[in-house]
Specification:
Elements: E1 22-28, E2 39-44, E3 54-59, E4 64-71, E5 74-82, E6 90-97, E7 100-105
Antiparallel strand pairs: 1-6, 2-3, 3-4, 4-5, 6-7
């Protein structure tokens, strides 16, 4: 069980830009679905505004997932998807294709 204090290690291999399709699949249950904080779900960046790497973040109170990543060596917002968050367990699949984000909930 991931408690928000643990982490998943993506390894040390450099991923400097997003140039292919990516898929992330995970189960998640929120304690505070109305929070206005930004939470990184997956991140391979040294800082939020780095020109290398990627991140999938959520803003529960705004009902939003956001994917941003380096493409052509500059940081780009690659998609926002609206999701109605609640306090139940849900299965999420986030897919990035052609610099477009899609998120599937329980499906």
């Amino acid at each position: 069980l991931f408690d928000g204090k643990s982490h998943i290690d993506f390894g040390t291999q450099a991923l400097t830009k997003v140039n292919s399709e990516m898929t992330f699949s995970f189960w998640m249950k929120l304690t505070h679905p109305n929070s206005q904080n930004y939470y990184r779900v997956f991140c391979k960046r040294k800082s939020w505004d780095s020109d290398k790497g990627f991140e999938l973040e959520m803003i529960p109170g705004a009902n939003r997932f956001n994917f941003s990543g380096a493409y052509d060596y500059r940081s780009n917002d690659m998609g926002n998807v609206e999701i109605n968050f609640d306090t139940a367990w849900h299965h999420y699949t986030a897919i990035l294709t052609d610099k477009r984000l899609r998120v599937y909930l329980d499906g």
